[in-house]
Model the fold of this input.
Amino acid sequence: MRRVWLMAAALGLLMGCGGDDGPAGPSPGALEIRLNGPTGAGAALLLVEGGEIDAVEAAGYFTASAPYSGTARRVLVAGENLAGTLLRIQVPDRRVAYQATLIEIADGSTYRLLDPAGFTMAVVRP
Done:
């Protein structure tokens, strides 16, 4: 009986010494919003949502943003041949699931609206 009790106590002690799950607090930092698709896009309007956004930073293209509703922001990006990283957002917690949705996209030379279904957006840690 004593042996069973000692084994149970040792097992309980080992279970209490679990691995480190990382910091319990928020993880502030930057996230990149990336665009993939056909070449030639000159302007994109997108919606970024999921949590608070402290700042929107340009990544080589003209960028303007405004709060949309709650924790969402509308962002306009314009430039030549939009592709790859369009912008960076500074967020208070990078563990929150952010998403970017392409609302409209225009051709860079004719300004004709393109089908957004041909493009994909991704939010990634740099």
Observations:
- Confidence is low (pLDDT under 50) at residues 2-7.
- The radius of gyration is 22 Å.
- The helical segments are 2-16.
- The chain is about 10% helix and 50% strand.
